[in-house]
C-alpha cells in the first residue's frame, strides 16, 4: 500500500484524506495548528470554518446548492457531517461550527488508514504522492517552496476580483461591441458607454460608497495593475478616464465618436453567458457595489453572479499549472486542492479536495484519472480553473458556468431547474462509472 501525504487538514485536506483512506490508501495528514496558527483560525480542530458558519444555499437551483447535492452523491464526509450538525438558517446549510469540526477531527484521527502529524510542512516532497491543501493562508515557508515548485509568477498572494454579471441581464442597447483600436475580435469586449453627466454621478457615488475595512493581516501594497477602482478615483476626477474607464481607441458606431467614458465587459466563459467588468476590482461593500454599478446605464438591471473583492489569498494559476485532474502538468504525483487552486468558498474547497483524493488514489492504483462531466457544477468549476484563458481570479460555483441547455427556455427558474436536473443525472452516471473500477 503506497501512501499519500496530505498537507493541511482544513476543509479540502480533511475531505481528501477521508476519500483516500476509505479507498484503502495510507494517508499522512500534516496540520500545523494548534502549534502554529493562521491569522484566521482559532482552534486546532480540522475543517474549522474560519468565518461564517454557513456552507451557503441548499437550493438546487443555486450553484452552491447544486454543488452540495453533487458532493453528497460522491459521498462527501464534510457535507454529510455538516448536515448532521445543521442549525436552522432558512435555505442555507449552517452548522454548529464547534461540534462540526470536533466531529471531523474525531473521525479522521481515529481512522485506521490515517496518521496525523501536527507540524508545519516547509518543503513539498517532490518524489511522493502529495496533495497540497494548505489553503488561502498557507504558511510563509511553504508558500516560498510552492513558488519554486510552480514558478514564481504563478503564485498569487491577493485576489483582486472584478464583479461578474449574467450576460442576459445586460442592456446591450446602451453600448457597443469592439476592441480598442480594433485590435482583437469584434466581440471580445462590450463597451458600456457613459456621458459626462452619467460619469460624474457614478464618480461621486463611488467616492461616497461604504468600503470594507482591511483586516490587519490584509494590509496590502497593491500593484498599480490591481488597484481598487475607488482608490484610483480618490486620486482625482479624471484618473479613471485614464485607467479602466478610458475611451481612447473606441469609436461608438452609433455616433462615430469616442464616448466620454466606458466600462468594458469581457467574456468569462467560452459560451459568453458571464461577463466581467474589466479592471473593476473593489473593496466596496456588496450592497454598495450593486447600487453604484447599476448607475452604469447598460448595467441598470444587472444580475451579479459575483461581486468584486480584494483579500489576502494564496492561490496558484491553476490554468497554467494543473491538469483537469488537479495534479501538476510538470509533476503528475503532486496534486493541489482547496482554495489554493483558485476556487472560492467552503463548498468548492471541499469539492476539489474530494476530487484530488479520488485521483491521488487512482494514480496509486494505476487507474486513469477522472474529472466529472462538464454538465456538473463540480466538473465545470474544475474545468474553469484549469483552462481559463488569461489571468485566473478565484471562482465560486455559479450556475452561469454550466454549458447552456440544448433547448431555449424563457423562464430563468425553469432554466435553472433543468440545468440542475441535468447536472444530477450526469453526476450519478459519473459515480457509477468510477465505482466500476
Ligand atoms: C479570513 C477568511 C474568511 C473566509 N470566510 C469564508 C466564509 O465565510 N465562507 C466561505 O465559504 N469561505 C470563506 N473563506 C474562503 C475559504 O473557503 C476558506 O478559507 C476555506 O477554509 C478554504 O478551505 P481550504 O481547505 O482550502 O483551506 P483551510 O480550510 O484554510 O485549510 C488549510 C489548512 O492548512 C493548514 N496549513 C497551512 N500551511 C500549512 C503548512 N505549511 N503545514 C501544515 N499545515 C498547513 C492550515 O492551518 C489549515 O488548517 C474565507 C477565507 C479567509 C482567509
Automatic annotation (TrEMBL):
<dbReference type="InterPro" id="IPR004417">
    <property type="entry name" value="TrmFO"/>
</dbReference>
<comment type="function">
    <text>Catalyzes the folate-dependent formation of 5-methyl-uridine at position 54 (M-5-U54) in all tRNAs.</text>
</comment>
<dbReference type="InterPro" id="IPR002218">
    <property type="entry name" value="MnmG-rel"/>
</dbReference>
<keyword id="KW-0285">Flavoprotein</keyword>
<keyword id="KW-0963">Cytoplasm</keyword>
<dbReference type="Pfam" id="PF01134">
    <property type="entry name" value="GIDA"/>
</dbReference>
<protein>
    <recommendedName>
        <fullName>Methylenetetrahydrofolate--tRNA-(uracil-5-)-methyltransferase TrmFO</fullName>
        <ecNumber>2.1.1.74</ecNumber>
    </recommendedName>
</protein>
<keyword id="KW-0521">NADP</keyword>
<dbReference type="GO" id="GO:0002098">
    <property type="term" value="P:tRNA wobble uridine modification"/>
</dbReference>
<keyword id="KW-0489">Methyltransferase</keyword>
<dbReference type="GO" id="GO:0047151">
    <property type="term" value="F:tRNA (uracil(54)-C5)-methyltransferase activity, 5,10-methylenetetrahydrofolate-dependent"/>
</dbReference>
<dbReference type="InterPro" id="IPR036188">
    <property type="entry name" value="FAD/NAD-bd_sf"/>
</dbReference>
<feature type="domain" description="MnmG N-terminal">
    <location>
        <begin position="3"/>
        <end position="366"/>
    </location>
</feature>
<dbReference type="InterPro" id="IPR040131">
    <property type="entry name" value="MnmG_N"/>
</dbReference>
<keyword id="KW-0520">NAD</keyword>
<feature type="binding site">
    <location>
        <begin position="8"/>
        <end position="13"/>
    </location>
    <ligand>
        <name>FAD</name>
    </ligand>
</feature>
<dbReference type="GO" id="GO:0005829">
    <property type="term" value="C:cytosol"/>
</dbReference>
<keyword id="KW-0274">FAD</keyword>
<dbReference type="GO" id="GO:0050660">
    <property type="term" value="F:flavin adenine dinucleotide binding"/>
</dbReference>
<dbReference type="GO" id="GO:0030488">
    <property type="term" value="P:tRNA methylation"/>
</dbReference>
<comment type="similarity">
    <text>Belongs to the MnmG family. TrmFO subfamily.</text>
</comment>
<keyword id="KW-0808">Transferase</keyword>
<keyword id="KW-0819">tRNA processing</keyword>
Amino acid at each position: 500500500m503506497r501512501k499519500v501525504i496530505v498537507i493541511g487538514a482544513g476543509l479540502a485536506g480533511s475531505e481528501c484524506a477521508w476519500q483516500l483512506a476509505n479507498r484503502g490508501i495510507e494517508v499522512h495528514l500534516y496540520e500545523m495548528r494548534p502549534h502554529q496558527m493562521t491569522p484566521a483560525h482559532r482552534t486546532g480542530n480540522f475543517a474549522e470554518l474560519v468565518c461564517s458558519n454557513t456552507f451557503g444555499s441548499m437550493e438546487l437551483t443555486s450553484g452552491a446548492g447544486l454543488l452540495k447535492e453533487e458532493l453528497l452523491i460522491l459521498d462527501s464526509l464534510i457535507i454529510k457531517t455538516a448536515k448532521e450538525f445543521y442549525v436552522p438558517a432558512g435555505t442555507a446549510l449552517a452548522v454548529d461550527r464547534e461540534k462540526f469540526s470536533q466531529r471531523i477531527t474525531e473521525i479522521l484521527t481515529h481512522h485506521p488508514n490515517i496518521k496525523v502529524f501536527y507540524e508545519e510542512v516547509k518543503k513539498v516532497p517532490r518524489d511522493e504522492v502529495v496533495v497540497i491543501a494548505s489553503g488561502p493562508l498557507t504558511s510563509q515557508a511553504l508558500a516560498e517552496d510552492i513558488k519554486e515548485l510552480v514558478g514564481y509568477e504563478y503564485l498569487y498572494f491577493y485576489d483582486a476580483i472584478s464583479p461578474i454579471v449574467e450576460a442576459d441581464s445586460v442592456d446591450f442597447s446602451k453600448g457597443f461591441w469592439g476592441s480598442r483600436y480594433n485590435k482583437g475580435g469584434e466581440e471580445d469586449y462590450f463597451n458600456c458607454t457613459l456621458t459626462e453627466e452619467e460619469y460624474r454621478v457614478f464618480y461621486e457615488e463611488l467616492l461616497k460608497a461604504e468600503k470594507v475595512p482591511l483586516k490587519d493581516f490584509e494590509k496590502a501594497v497593491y500593484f498599480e495593475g490591481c488597484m481598487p477602482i475607488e482608490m484610483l478615483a480618490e486620486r482625482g476626477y479624471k484618473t479613471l478616464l485614464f485607467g479602466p474607464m478610458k475611451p481612447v481607441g473606441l469609436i461608438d458606431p452609433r455616433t462615430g465618436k469616442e464616448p466620454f467614458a466606458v466600462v468594458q465587459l469581457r467574456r468569462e466563459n467560452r459560451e459568453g453567458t458571464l461577463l466581467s467588468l474589466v479592471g473593476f476590482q473593489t473593496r466596496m461593500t456588496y450592497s454598495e457595489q450593486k447600487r453604484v454599478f447599476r448607475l452604469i446605464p447598460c448595467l441598470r438591471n444587472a444580475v451579479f453572479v459575483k461581486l468584486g473583492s480584494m483579500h489576502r489569498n494564496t492561490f496558484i494559476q491553476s490554468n497554467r499549472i494543473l491538469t483537469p485532474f488537479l495534479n501538476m502538468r510538470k509533476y503528475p504525483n503532486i496534486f493541489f486542492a482547496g482554495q489554493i487552486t483558485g476556487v472560492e468558498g467552503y463548498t468548492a474547497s471541499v469539492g476539489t479536495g474530494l476530487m484530488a483524493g479520488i485521483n491521488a488514489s487512482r494514480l496509486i492504483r494505476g487507474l486513469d484519472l477522472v474529472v466529472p462531466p462538464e454538465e456538473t457544477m463540480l466538473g465545470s468549476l474544475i474545468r474553469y480553473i484549469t483552462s481559463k484563458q488569461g489571468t485566473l481570479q478565484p471562482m465560486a460555483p455559479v450556475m452561469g458556468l454550466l454549458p447552456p441547455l440544448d433547448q431555449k427556455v424563457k423562464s430563468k427558474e425553469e432554466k435553472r431547474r433543468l440545468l440542475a436536473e441535468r447536472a444530477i443525472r450526469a453526476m450519478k452516471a459519473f459515480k457509477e462509472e468510477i465505482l466500476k473500477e
